[in-house]
Amino acid sequence: MNLNTFSNTPFSLCISFHLLIAHYEDVAANQTGFRAEHAKQILKEIEPFPELRTGIDDLVLLEEKLEPIKRLVADLFPEALTDNEIKAITAPFQDFLFNPTNRFKKILNNAGPKFDIGIRDFNDHQLYIFSCCLILKDHYDQNFDFSKPFFYDIPTAAGVIKHYRILYNADFMELVPTEHAVKLTPEDIDLLRDNFDDLELWKKYFPVNSWMLKGFAIVTLFDATVENAVSSLKGTLLGAPYNDDVYESVLSVFRSIYRMPNLKIGFTTFNPDEDKFGLATFNSRLKSYLLSGEQEDTCANMMCVAEFANLVDQKKYFAVSDVKKYLEKEPDNVLAQRFDNEGVQSFILGPVVKNNNLLGIIELVSENPYELNSINANQLAIVMPFLTDTIDRQYTYMINQIRAVIQKEYTTIHPSVYWKFQREAVKYIDMHGQGKEYTLKEITFRDVYPLYGQIDIKGSSDTRNMSVQLDLEDQLNTLIPLLDQIQPSFKESLPAERIDKLRNMANELHLPLRADTEQMIQTYLETHIDPLLKKVVEQQHADAPDVKAYLLETGQTGEFHEHRKMYETTVAMINEKMSIMLDKWQNKVQTAFPHYYDRFKTDGVEHNLYIGQSIIPTRTFNMADLYNLRLWQIQVLCQMEYEHHRIKDTLPYPLDVTTLILAFSQPLSIRFRMDEKRFDVDGTYNARFEMVKKRIDKAFVKNTRERVTAVGKLTIIYTTKEEETEYKKYIHFLQSKKMLHHEIDVLEVEDLQGVSGLKALRVKICYDILPDRRCYTYEEMIADTKKNMYLIS
């Protein structure tokens, strides 16, 4: 222990007990009874030691007077409390300690002979300024608030750092100015108030040894290890990246709280999408004792222990105080075996929960039995909020990294398959964090069942051509008279042949529009007519106002685009309405069994669905889930058809739509194509599905010129007899619910390029369907079918 006196402060120190002696003199003179007699006895015992009143500035001499001093301060240091209180005589902000209690002595002895006590984070600059503030407060009545908490960090014999809060009692001290003291003005005090960092300025107004600190102070410590550790943990974790330095700080905090120098911590993440435990990717030092060397493990493998199941499901602590004894009771227990293999003989597992979601499990482990148990497991509650926020922050940071990788490498991903992209992104980030190269693997889902459907705008190409023709007719019918008007003034620049050519173009617009007609007319106008019209405006010709009016209407918002805008608005309104409906119904059916969903807009809305075990490995897939989705698809397309029928007359162009479903019963594989940033079928055989999708919407009924799709009817394309039987069941059920008419057309589809043998079911949709009508489930269909069979029998 070091015994430092004031070395760099405005004080000279004189340890004196004059104020305490004066107190006893007052009691002896003015009171009677035991207190007065007690005071007289003390005064008599110290009478041979006048230096206790006048003051001692030599610490060696102070040590020699220990016995009379102990007698003098006995009332302040009760013998009955010496083994409990942590007290000593000192001076404020000084590290010398005199007359410590037994408990204080024991604490210092356990710290070892090499330990030098010192106030934490307290340097010479702070010592000088705070000493000056004592003078300002006591002598000048200035409240310079420096109520910073002070701590001693003292190790135990086992090496665990304990933290003690310091409290000073300075009732028996007084400040006395010396001949070197500087008298301060209010202006001087204001200057000091704004210049904490200017040490030389403070020394100017408070020179070294310019004040005497006469008397003594009592320092009292209380054990604030847990509170301080929590505060330290909070400061360490707040906003800090979880690197190795932070890991060591957190480990030190836990060792202080549990008073175990060999305590170790681990962490295991939980992935709810895959129902698996895994390693913490945000810090390589965080070992998982639960996994014991494995990269990941399913939750099911860990659920063999009921208490551990409670930890995951009910978010409760789980502790084992003696792993060996636990294994004797349950020798096949995988959890206990793993901890035993790691040399762990007692442990605590704490769930890290945010917004009722399990993020992972914090692991406290010890190589000694009984050190960790269900009792001290509750101490985790003190630090868990800070750990939770920190780990949640790390998760958020990791998720942002994952999303960045996915957005860059894969584009936007449907939630049902996001987990697999996330796993690949985690590997990518982890390997790059280790400085290793990693090539992202292609994402594939095998044995999934495809569903395809579309709402197609009927005659959209013809309507667009018509709108183009009408706009071009309006433009040319306005332009030709205008050119006739200005031609006399621009004969050479506007020969009559050009006007005649425009008249011929206007006549051609009365015929069916060719593919290149629009481009040809626009190119001719831009090359031969528009430059002249702009010249008319620049020269401020007499016809300039009329030319300006014409040019204004050629813009995208002008009247020469009016019919095209009406067409584009119609298509956009249909697509938007259908997409919103489809997305809304999709959100509902995802809860039945999650599946991949993709939709895109063309002249109508198409959608792809893929359902199977590989997409959601945490759920058990069966064929009833597929049948439910197929029944759902029919109903939703009928609802969409009905909704279009309802809004049709409000559209700029009252366009019709047709509805189509492609039935495909064979499971296939889909693969995310990195170059196209989308899913596609994988393999040559599976490509037939894509081929059929692209060709059926324009197909004809065999041996006719009738399209297989028809307005007001649902068309289902299929191949096999089994598919026909299955879909007829759906149709009959929906007919009983008044969604479809009773007649069913069974058609053969013309042979397409590379595709033959297709058939179609076509049934009329009932337009009295309510727009908010719910979808029936496959289970309801089966129950209804059984009920009807019973009634018939």
What tags apply to this protein structure?
793 residues, alpha+beta, Beta-Lactamase, 4 domains, 9-stranded mixed sheet, 6-stranded antiparallel sheet, 26 helices, elongated
What ranges have pLDDT less than 50 throughout 5 or more consecutive residues?
none
CATH-level-2 architecture of the largest domain: 2-Layer Sandwich
Measured by DSSP, the beta-strand proportion falls in: 15-25%
Structural class: alpha+beta
Which word captures the global form? elongated
> Oligomerization state of this entry?
single chain
Under CATH at level 1, the class of the largest domain stands as Alpha Beta
Provide the residue-averaged pLDDT: 83
Number of strands: 22
Rg is 44 Å
Amino- and carboxy-terminal Cα gap? 101 Å
